TrEMBL record:
Keywords: DNA damage, DNA repair, Endonuclease, Hydrolase, Metal-binding, Nuclease, Zinc. Belongs to the AP endonuclease 2 family. The gene is nfo. It is an enzyme of class 3 (hydrolase). Residues 23-273 form the Xylose isomerase-like TIM barrel domain. Endonuclease IV plays a role in DNA repair. It cleaves phosphodiester bonds at apurinic or apyrimidinic (AP) sites, generating a 3'-hydroxyl group and a 5'-terminal sugar phosphate. This is Probable endonuclease 4. Its cofactor is Zn(2+).
Length: 284
């Protein structure tokens, strides 16, 4: 089963997001829990949430991928920024229980000169503060491109964070195709080997979601510039192999390409066709 959708705006509420995704041809989606630049989260209407839950159940949606604001930096040097990260994540995870059993994705953060190891320890500390036994949401560390002082630009750095988290059953990973490509992982010509490396270092059981993006840059550029599917350096054939890979069956694929709804509708249809063709070839 292919679960695919795009990153959409949460400003109109949950039911509106689901209806837009159905119109786009998707059966999953991602959304920011609040303004991506931070600030107070919008009040949630319980009636809207109930209509939403009924709709996605009827439509057979896959897991949803909420996204923390970009301003959340769990390994910031300034204590007030780390307090913001803890408070924001705790509040977001509490709100996520209105749509239980889904995913909450965040960028590990930037160590801003403190060093990668200190950054890793601070990220784990935030997670150990906010994760609870009762939560049904799985928190996902996103693979990064390794630009500047970003933490999470290698599988090893992601693993080091996971190793320090106490409630490991509440954790997973979201792999961003643009990020890992820009980070130096050749998913175009060596996808099997990259997934084998991920499995060896982190474990494929931890891979819960894919951000499916092409890249404007050459492999290893460490720049993080997303491109539309088939218009970048990774290419359509390579991204189709990602969608069709049997090891990734059943996990949500989220488009974060620079597009509008018409563009995402076209990309979703294209990738559905690629998946169907790949499935047919696999079954021959």
């Amino acid at each position: 089963m292919l679960y695919i959708g795009n990153h959409t705006s949460s400003s109109k509420g949950y039911e509106a997001m689901a209806k837009q995704m159905i119109k786009n041809g998707g059966n999953t989606f991602a959304f920011f829990t609040r303004n991506p630049r931070g600030g107070k989260a919008k009040d949630i209407d319980p009636a809207d949430v109930e209509k939403f839950r009924i709709l996605i159940r009827e439509q057979g949606f896959g897991k949803l991928v909420a996204h923390a604001p970009y301003t959340l930096n769990a390994c910031a040097a300034k204590e007030n920024l780390r307090v913001f990260a803890k408070e924001t994540m705790a509040e977001d995870l509490n709100r996520m229980e209105l749509i239980p059993g889904n995913y909450y994705n965040f960028h590990p953060g930037s160590h801003v000169g403190q060093g990668t190891q200190i950054g890793i320890e601070k990220i784990a500390d935030v997670l150990n503060t906010v994760l609870t036994n009762e939560q049904s949401t799985t928190v996902l560390l996103e693979t990064m491109a390794g630009k500047g002082s970003e933490v999470g630009g290698t599988f090893e750095e992601i693993k080091e964070i996971l190793d320090l988290v106490e409630k490991k059953d509440k954790m997973g990973v979201c792999l961003d195709t643009c990020h890992v490509w820009d980070g130096g992982y050749d998913i175009a010509d060596h996808l099997d080997e990259v997934l084998e490396e991920f499995d060896r270092v982190i474990g494929l059981k931890r891979l819960k979601a894919i951000h499916l993006n092409d890249s404007q840059n050459e492999m290893g550029s460490h720049k993080d510039r997303h491109a539309r599917i088939g218009e970048g350096k990774i290419g359509l054939k390579a991204l189709a192999r990602v969608v069709c890979h049997p090891a990734l069956e059943g996990i949500p694929f989220i488009l974060e390409t620079p597009n509008d709804d018409d563009g995402w509708t076209a990309e979703i249809a294209l990738l559905k066709d690629q998946y169907a063709a790949g499935l047919e070839k696999r079954n021959l």
